[in-house]
Known about the structure:
Layout: H1 7-28, H2 30-41, H3 47-63, H4 65-74, H5 79-97, H6 103-122, H7 128-132, H8 137-183, H9 213-229, H10 231-242, H11 248-273, H12 276-295, H13 304-316, H14 324-332, H15 336-361, H16 380-393
Helix pairs in contact: 1-6, 1-8, 2-3, 2-8, 2-10, 3-6, 3-15, 4-15, 5-6, 5-8, 8-11, 9-15, 9-16, 10-11, 11-13, 12-13, 12-16, 14-15
Amino acid sequence: MLQDRGFGAYAFLLSAWLMDMLLWGSAFSYGIFLEHYTSVEFPHAPRTTLALVGSVQTGILYLSSLVLLPVFRWYPKVKRVMMWVGFVLTLAGLVSAAFVKEPWALVLTQGVMVSVGSSILYWPVLPYMFEWFSEKKGLANGIIFSGASIGGTCLPYAIQALLQHHGRRTTLLVLALIFALLLGPVIPFAKARLPLSRVVKPGPMNFHFLSQFVFWILCTANMCQALGNYIPTLYLPSFASAMRQGDIGTTGVALYNASSAFGQILVGHFSDRFDLRLCMAICALGSSTSVLLIWGLSVASTIAPLVIFALFFGFFAPSWASLWPKFSSVVAGDDAATAMALFVGGRGIGTLLAAPISEGLLGDGWPTGNSQFAYSLAGYGPLIVFTGVTQFASVLGVMYKLFEPRTR
């Protein structure tokens, strides 16, 4: 089958996009669940525990790539079976979460079970992208990753409506049904380009790039970006409530995700055509500026700044992920899938750290001012500054070129 075009390539792209839309889109919409849990179902439970559900869900999705991608590389014959195992485990986690009665049980079900199942289903698929696409892998990666953004645009409204009118149990059961109906039929199309009989058994995994300073510069920039990337989607609903702006937080999450869909496709396309340093600088400066100058200066009297922030941050920050194939090609050449697992895992570490760090920044011990701006709102100032600074720090990635090995 041909690379970059043909029915097989497009069918694979649609299958991977649907998986990304539901598996990641639901995880990125957890802020809606968090607001409902803290205000309605578990108002007296530790907020840190409830926030941990979303952090664990996204963190495991990212970090599991470090384990699953090497395993599936060495044992390609188990990929198809394990994808169905992951599919069943994901549904079981959603159904179980619908019936638990304690916050710690939500961590185990909606957090751990769902994310482990989603990881086993999703990660066998991503390396296939390098088989199906060569010249347009940046664009293909951007299209696949935009699925989470589209899911994050539609799901917050559906989840909020279901939670308000029917509660947690019905909401999670409906999600399980949607997953079953949409993902089950497309799993057979999420497959390798070459038949298994023609795939050469892989040699030892090559980690030579770990000794290159280029990798560590890009890895550090990636970690900095990850630390602040998840915070706005997690706290926009509760921030809007604290600003007495009603349901604009849900709208903000949806706008963030809608904007990121366009951003990831465009940045992925640009990475195939333009210098990687330019793409990194645009993402880093665009996201940090939107946090420090738009979110930080938003006021309770108008919703416009929060809407503009969601659009700008959504366009620039998530688009960083569309650069991972380029990062991987720079540091590892033909063995790009191995390097990409580490960049994905780096974001997972940052996401896991984001919940405890952000909860600490929101604590009562931080000073607040009398200004009308968001910087003075109930401890949100430190959170906003931290998010903006970490996004800006990711611009150091442009320095990788200074340490790239010279060739004659």
